[in-house]
Amino acid sequence: MIKELVAIANSLDKKGFKKEADIIDELIKKAGGHEKDLKNPKIEKLKETDLILPIGKKIILQAENNEHNRGLVIELMKDHSYVAYYWYDDPEKIYPVEVFLDGDSRDKSVKKVKFGYHPELDG
């Protein structure tokens, strides 16, 4: 996928669409080529996959919203768990939110959520 994006960016550059080529270049840099980072050769990237999370890097997601800057930060931890939090105005500022588990409200002031790794798959 990265190769194809590079080819598109180069083609746009040659045709004089520098701004558009620069946008694609930025996307390539942000993706960091993680598509090839699947460590197990028996595991393939699913066609439905939008992004492969690299271990130890916070990924900032921003909601499509016309009124406020807000979103989520998620990080895949070394122990294969996930840590996520909600942000408002600034991705570095954690904002408390209500958390629902299986449809039931559990807490209205959660700052970080950890999704544990499922140990039953280790054997």
Could you describe the 3D structure shown?
- With 123 residues, the chain is an alpha+beta fold.
- It is 22% helix and 32% strand.
- It has two domains: 1-52, no CATH class; 54-123, no CATH class.
- The strands form two sheets. Strands 1, 2, 3, 4 and 7 form a five-stranded antiparallel β-sheet that branches. A two-stranded antiparallel sheet has the order 5-6.
- The model has no long low-confidence stretch (mean pLDDT 83).
- It contains two helices and seven strands, in the order ααβββββββ.
- The two termini are 33 Å apart.
Structural class: alpha+beta
| Total of domains | 2
Secondary-structure element pattern, one letter each: HHEEEEEEE
Characterize the main sheet: 5 strands, antiparallel
Low-confidence stretches: none
The pLDDT mean sits at 83
Question: How much helicity do the residues have?
Answer: 10-25%
How large is the radius of gyration?
18 Å
Tell me the distance between the termini. Answer: 33 Å
- Classify the oligomer: single chain
Beta-strand residue fraction: 25-35%
Shape: flat
Q: What is the tally of beta strands?
A: 7
Number of helical stretches of at least 4 residues: 2
